[in-house]
Design goal:
By secondary structure, the protein is α/β, with parallel strands linked by helices. It folds into 2 domains: about 210 residues, NAD(P)-binding Rossmann-like Domain (Rossmann fold, 3-Layer(aba) Sandwich); about 40 residues, no CATH class. Helix content is about 50%, strand content about 15%. It has a 7-stranded parallel β-sheet with strand order 3-2-1-4-5-6-7, sandwiched between helices. The longest helix has 29 residues. The protein is globular, with a radius of gyration of 18 Å.
Length: about 260
């Protein structure tokens, strides 16, 4: 039997990149999944049906805007009514903006904190009662190496990801006797469409080739000089859902090629 047969996973920001990779792996392990995120409707429908066909599970999609608490609550409610509840919650939705703090637009700060931090509070708040009732649940927050260390010009992102690690620890303590764990995964640079966009922007800004951006800027912080792969994060997420990981809770787990040990 697959390790998540009969379970349901809600993965925010899962129409591309890290979130999609995690959703696909959880489905491969037998979980029904609810996708969430932005994208072209026909492309999202293809993703949804591909998951169902490939893994023999149900895959639904909810377009909730993760900056809107009422839409988040409605998404969790839909997941409960249609798929039997949220057993595995992966808070992955996130956005980025880079600027010196004195030039940082306040509206960008508010948006990043809302989506990268507050949305996790709202999903956890809505999903926890069902997990407690079942005496089983797994909450995995996709934080960042920037939840453990800082970099310049990323004030909102660093603040939100540090906050997400703190939220993880608090939730873990609150549910320690309820059969629920809460952990944060802290990736370094992952080769996703979001990072590819940053590479192109940096190449234009510094007027250097993209391969130099990768080696001299993006991967400079990672001693392995390699991107983290989405499959690395999906595998760790799956492990945290197993019984073998039942005593891992409140942890901030780096997957960063050695970045944060320097």
């Amino acid at each position: 039997m697959k390790i998540l047969s009969g379970k349901t996973a809600l993965v925010t920001g899962s129409t591309s990149g890290i979130g999609l990779g995690i959703a696909q792996e959880l489905a491969a392990q037998g979980a029904h999944v609810m996708l969430n995120g932005f994208g072209k409707p026909d492309e999202i429908e293809t993703l949804r049906t591909d998951i169902e066909k490939a893994h023999g599970v149900r895959a639904l999609y909810n377009p909730a805007d993760m900056s809107k608490p009422d839409q988040i609550a409605a998404m969790v409610d839909e997941c409960t009514k249609t798929l039997g509840g949220v057993d595995v919650l992966v808070n992955n939705a996130g956005i980025q903006f880079v600027s010196p703090i004195e030039d940082f637009p306040p509206e960008k700060w508010d948006a990043i904190v809302a989506i990268n931090l507050s949305s996790a509070f709202h999903t956890i708040r809505a999903a926890l009662p069902g997990m407690k009732a079942k005496k089983w649940g797994r909450i995995i927050n996709i934080a960042s190496a920037h939840g453990l260390v800082a970099s310049p010009f990323k004030s909102a992102y660093v603040a939100a990801k540090h906050g997400l690690v703190g939220l993880t620890k608090t939730v873990a303590l609150e549910v320690a006797t309820d059969g629920v764990t809460c952990n944060a995964i802290c990736p370094g640079y992952v080769n996703t469409p979001l990072v590819q966009g940053q590479i192109k922007d940096q190449a234009k800004t510094h007027n250097i080739p993209e391969d130099r951006v990768i080696s001299e800027i993006i991967l400079k912080a990672q001693p392995t000089r390699q991107f983290v792969e989405v499959t690395d994060l999906a595998a760790l997420t799956t492990f945290l859902c197993t019984d073998a990981a039942r005593n891992i809770t409140g942890a901030a787990l780096p997957v960063d090629g050695g970045w944060t040990v320097q």
